Backbone:
């Protein structure tokens, strides 16, 4: 009996000694669970899957560094199918069944909007993921959106200014009948009104629209000087094709503005030369310098090829990696997973990320927005690699990243190199 | 609201093309649901499968439309197998089981969608052809060639199916099974084999419709959801099982939608389809061309 007790004591001592050894061994407490829903199918699926590759890259990196609070980090992500109706259920499961420690919002405005009341009611920190003005009405004080825009003017300003420089006096609006596009459209309408640009065409289209030829004909008949389009990926492709086939009219100076999807590599590659002349928003284009972005993009590219997702990953992936970096910085600094403390830290401090330094305003949006408006130039067909070069998307706005002036009218810009 | 007769003419012209496109994507369903009473909600998913197969075959250098034609026999066999499975597991067990078959077709649609995601990812796929991305200029009007292709495919499919169903022995047997299955059984014919054949044809036609779909615009695995409502609307509006009716219903829907899109407001366009359906069902419950 005494012999066996001695053996147990020896084994216990050995275990204690082993756990005290330095290295990447994680603490006995379970992993730090980070939960989210992400559109992995449906119209935002292409972007969502690429974003997940980046987040998983951060998870691997942080675990290499010893995790958070010496605990392994685990990412739990469910597919919301780009269907906002699925999102509240997913977050309820994440919180009540999976018992996650931290939350990241799904990519996009439409899937995020339904969970805002819930996170406010439960006093939860939520890291936003390319949403647009979802907190404007809810006013949750633990919301931190990682997107390069702030309010509607931060998004549309560069586009409207480009039109003004070309002498535009009238504008046409074409917007998807969804939360994101409508928020953006409202801001753009106000901006153009302030700039004395008259609206001559204003249409919202339903998400089930399959062909845009009729709408493009309507725009052409209205003879606007600018066309501001706020569309989702599938619609953006159909709109660009219809413009190429039917023509939008010689009066148009600038075309584009808020077309989601024209930042995704597979879409850019498939549209090829049809993109030329379009002036559209972006989050990052080659040539912009942020510390660590190039290393991130090269490591991302390797994984993206295996995962069959956006091989360049300029648009969403760096921002998703940055969400992880911000959580890491906040948890390490506060040594806590308590949402209120993390929120306070995020509000008061500058975050260092692969998409540059980030500070938040009181609404949880970037205090210094930097939405890029870039014009596609000299894009050839069937060539993915060309988009790695600076110059295929000439930055018109903001001033600090500007690489060229906008070419107008739109028809001329389409053939410009 | 913008109005001019030029614009109205353009709206009607484009509505005809759009209508033919709607008819072409609905005609397979007109056979499977309209004639056979099979609640085939996986029809658009099979069409998307056809689009992806066209994407592969056209990648070998074949024209997309020709690819769709080449794929038809394989899809015919697929249709036969699907119907056989549906019949053995649901239909032969009675009406209630057939209603549960609805769940089977929903399941099938999800399996196809997820299978496509696993195989191709969620990105959009397109095909290349000389008639994609260019348009025919007629004075001030420019008509996209891809829509003219949809127009042609719809006309050819409608004509071929109408002739097949009225002039051939098997075609007439398919119509007979739709009208009175027990009577056909008493005549010594096997209605299950006839239905299996007809379902094969409906699925084969979906391959060509899928080819047309990827010509008209890029496709992605979840795109079937966009077409479920519209295809069922066209088939019911036409009157179940009428091929020429399907073309006419597609045209009515396309023209109405195009005029509304161009002149009144795009947000009203989906309401047009289902509003028309409600009105027609109120006045003629059997549909516009149903007996």
Residues:
């Amino acid at each position: 009996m005494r012999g066996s007790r001695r053996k147990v004591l020896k084994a216990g001592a050995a275990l204690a000694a082993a756990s005290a050894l330095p290295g990447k061994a994680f603490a006995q407490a379970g992993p730090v669970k980070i939960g989210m829903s992400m559109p992995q199918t449906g119209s935002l699926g292409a972007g969502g899957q690429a974003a997940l590759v980046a987040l998983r890259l951060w998870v691997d990196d942080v675990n290499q560094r010893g995790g958070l609070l010496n605990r392994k980090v685990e990412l739990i992500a469910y597919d919301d199918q780009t269907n906002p109706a699925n999102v509240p259920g997913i977050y309820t499961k994440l919180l009540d069944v999976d018992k996650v420690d931290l939350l990241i919002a799904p990519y996009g405005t439409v899937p995020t909007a339904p969970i805002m009341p819930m996170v406010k009611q439960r006093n939860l920190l939520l890291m936003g993921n390319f949403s647009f003005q979802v907190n404007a009405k809810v006013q949750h004080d633990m919301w931190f959106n990682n997107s390069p825009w702030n309010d509607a003017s931060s998004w549309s300003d560069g586009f409207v200014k480009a039109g003004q420089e070309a002498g535009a006096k009238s504008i046409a609006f074409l917007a998807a009948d969804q939360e994101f596009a409508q928020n953006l459209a409202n801001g753009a309408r106000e901006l153009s009104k302030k700039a004395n640009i008259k609206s001559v065409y204003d249409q919202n289209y339903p998400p089930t629209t399959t062909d845009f030829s009729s709408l493009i004909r309507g725009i052409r008949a209205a003879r606007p000087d600018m066309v501001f389009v706020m569309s989702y990926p599938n619609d953006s492709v159909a709109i660009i094709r219809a413009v190429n086939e039917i023509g939008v009219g010689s009066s148009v100076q600038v075309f584009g503005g808020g077309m989601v999807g024209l930042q995704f590599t597979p879409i850019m590659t498939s549209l090829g030369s049809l993109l030329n002349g379009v002036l559209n928003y972006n989050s990052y284009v080659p040539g912009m310098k942020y510390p660590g972005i190039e290393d991130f993009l090269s490591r991302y590219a390797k994984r993206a090829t295996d995962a069959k997702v956006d091989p360049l990953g300029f648009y969403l992936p760096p921002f998703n990696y940055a969400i992880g970096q911000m959580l890491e910085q906040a948890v390490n600094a506060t040594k806590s997973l308590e949402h209120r403390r993390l929120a306070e830290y995020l509000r008061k401090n500058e975050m260092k990320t692969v998409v540059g330094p980030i500070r938040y305003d009181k609404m949880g949006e970037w205090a210094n927005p930097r939405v890029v408006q870039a014009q596609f130039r000299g894009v050839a067909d069937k060539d993915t690699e060309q988009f790695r070069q600076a110059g295929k998307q000439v930055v018109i706005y903001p001033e600090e990243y500007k690489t060229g002036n906008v070419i107008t009218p739109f028809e001329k810009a389409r053939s410009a190199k | 609201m913008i109005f001019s007769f030029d614009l109205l003419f353009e709206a009607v012209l484009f509505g005809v093309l759009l209508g033919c496109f709607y008819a072409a994507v609905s005609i397979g369903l007109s056979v499977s649901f309209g004639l056979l009473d099979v609640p085939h909600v996986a029809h658009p998913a099979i069409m998307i499968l056809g689009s992806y197969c066209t994407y592969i075959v056209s990648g070998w250098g074949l024209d997309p439309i020709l690819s769709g034609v080449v794929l038809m026999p394989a899809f015919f066999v697929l249709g036969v197998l699907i119907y056989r499975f549906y019949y053995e597991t649901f239909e032969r067990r009675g009406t209630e089981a057939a209603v549960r078959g609805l769940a089977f077709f929903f399941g099938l649609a999800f399996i196809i969608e997820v299978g496509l995601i696993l195989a191709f990812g969620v990105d959009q796929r397109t095909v290349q052809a000389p008639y994609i991305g260019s348009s025919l200029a007629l004075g001030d009007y420019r008509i996209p060639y891809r829509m003219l292709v949809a127009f042609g495919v719809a006309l050819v499919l409608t004509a071929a199916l109408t002739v097949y169903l009225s002039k051939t022995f098997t075609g007439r047997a398919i119509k007979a099974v739709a009208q009175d299955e027990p009577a056909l059984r008493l005549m010594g014919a096997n209605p299950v084999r006839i239905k299996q054949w007809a379902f094969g044809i409906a699925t084969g036609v979906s391959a060509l419709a899928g080819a047309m779909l990827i010509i008209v615009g890029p496709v992605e695995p979840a795109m079937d959801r966009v077409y479920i409502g519209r295809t069922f609307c066209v088939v019911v509006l036409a009157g179940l099982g009428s091929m020429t009716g399907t073309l006419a219903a597609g045209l009515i829907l396309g023209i109405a939608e195009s005029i509304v899109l161009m002149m009144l407001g795009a947000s009203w366009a989906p309401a047009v389809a289902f509003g028309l359906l409600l009105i027609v069902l109120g006045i003629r419950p059997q549909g516009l061309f149903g007996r």
User: Anything to note?
Assistant: Strands of chain B lie at 135-138, 141-144.
